[in-house]
Amino acid sequence: MSIDEIVKKSIDMHYHIGPDILPRRDTVETLIKNERGNIAGLVLKSHAFPSISAIQTIEKKEDDPLLIGSITLNYFMGGFNPSAIYASATMSKGNPLIVWFPTSHAENHLLKNHSQYEIPPEWVKDPNFKPRLKSELKAIKVTDWNNKLYEKCVRVLKTIKENNCILATGHLSWQESYVLATEALKMDIPTIITHPMQKDIKMPIDIQKELASKGAYIEHCYVMWLDRDYPEDYPLPAIKENIEEVGYDHCIIASDAGQVRNPKSSECLKTYMSLLKKEGISEDALAKMAVTNPRKILGIELND
Q: Most buried residue, 69, 114, 129, 163, by most Cβ within 10 Å?
């Protein structure tokens, strides 16, 4: 299968959608228009709102890509809020729902975001935007000082399980992600380790391999290499080495795109896979990570 064919059958498991606090290149309507016939499906993410509500506003046509909703457990959604998960899962009407653990409000994210602001105004570039100081927020953690999950986090896991959702670790520290993912996998919850190579997370490869051996999927994103001020932080040979250490059966390729400055999802995936192919990853392996594994995680089959 050629890279073009792989991209058309791919499901991008991480794509940011607008309208949002941060600028985004697409709404659901423009995304459908731009990606019809180019990609099989996308998981739509927002740091601030449940994306299923936007998905439900459109009338789907037969050749439109499959759109999967998600919720992110930031303060915008009430943090560890089982009712918010239940509502989005119910609105998904039988389709899977991704539950991202905190991103913008994770302690790890706030500590390593060097701005004094929760959302730096230079990211928003709107003169009407009123940024909040990080000091106004209590950072979200999933573990206590004994490295045990908080009870409110356990309740969220139970809600995820009861509603057949999929967990993604968000911007937690790798130590928190390890505890969370280990418990989720014990509960047979499909689990994605969100871009563990990202320099604010830096999950050790041995930990990635351990979680993968228990059933987790390790995410590798276009944005990790091609949309950074310092791409040398994520050299392609290191990405290839990490993927091969974990194994193709336990990795996924996603874009993490949707920012105004980035191309659309299908173009991001094509570029990223082409670069990985030049590094020596076969087309069969790329198809495994972009086509086969996302379908396994989502528990779906598509006629494409």
A: 69
Q: What is the pLDDT of residues 253-263, one digit of tens each?
A: 999 999 999 99
Residue 91 CB partners (closer than 8 Å, separation 6+): 50, 52, 53, 56, 69
Listed by start position, the domains of the chain span 3-298
Phi-psi region of 256 (alpha: psi -120 to 50; beta: other; left: phi over 0): left
Q: Which fold, 3-298?
A: TIM Barrel (3.20.20)
137 vs 244, more confident: 244
